[in-house]
Design brief:
With 122 residues, this protein is mainly alpha-helical. The protein has a single domain, classed as Winged helix-like DNA-binding domain superfamily/Winged helix DNA-binding domain (Arc Repressor Mutant, subunit A, Orthogonal Bundle). Helix content is 59%, strand content 11%. It contains six helices and three strands; from the N terminus they run ααβααββαα.
Amino acid sequence: MTESLAFDVFARGCASRETLEHATGRWGTLTLAALHAGSFRFNELRRRVDGVSEKMLAQTLHALERDGLVHREAQPVNPPRVDYRLTPLGESVAARLVELIALVEGRMPEVLAARERYDGSR
């Protein structure tokens, strides 16, 4: 007997599909993986996630915060200070993404060889 899931990412209107997209899109994955190392201020995070624009990082953080993966903490100081860190749910998701990143990075020689074979056959 198969257990019925409350959410089905394969269903067009399922809310889990949007959250999966936020977490596994290019900037979401890199942001979550960076935050897995600890708390960051916005500009520190932007430097860590090389290539992300200010606008895209802001949108990514907003989506991840809305999904409950990232916590935003504004300090009442002058100049303003905002720190971002993972929530417990975000930690769980980020840990799996970091494992996937390590797997991909570790297998890159195979990927590059496959690309070379593919490109050579065309």
